[in-house]
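Lab manual, section 2.4: Encoding a predicted structure.

Procedure: take the sequence of the chain (161 residues), apply the prediction step described in section 2.3, and record the output as structure tokens. A sample record is shown.
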Amino acid sequence: MNIDRLRDRFPDEDACRQFFESVRWPNGRRCPHCGSCKSYILKTLTVSAGTYECGQCKRQFRVTTKTPMHCTKLPLWKWLQTIYYIINSSKGVSSVFLAKWIGVTQPTAWRVGHAVREMMDPASNNHLLNGVVEIDQKYFGGKPKYRPGVVNKRGRGTSKQ
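Recorded output:
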């Protein structure tokens, strides 16, 4: 999938929000504050779309609540673009290029990039982005550690996988 097809699949903010909701709550909406599965959609002029109220603790929440995307002013489309570019880059993405690609400043791109990497971190408790990942070509491993008196093979001819 290229970026044009991604834009066709998610043409507006509502489509992006529905996608993130389906990923975060595959078995139905749950309150991130208390874990209750009873919630109501808030539809008023002062509340933005995609805001819910818990039926148990009466607190409001959105799909981004208690995630690294919480309290962001960036549209969800920019977050989706960032996830796309980070996942599809073979050697990582610098914040300078990410800023050009998604149309934000470099410090914002740096923060967004780190937030996406935090969501992908298996050591964190949230596991927001996980599952099967398909790759075509990738080299895992690296140079052996330096040890005095030990001569290692040059290049990728190490015993690492």
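Check your result against the sample. The radius of gyration is 20 Å.
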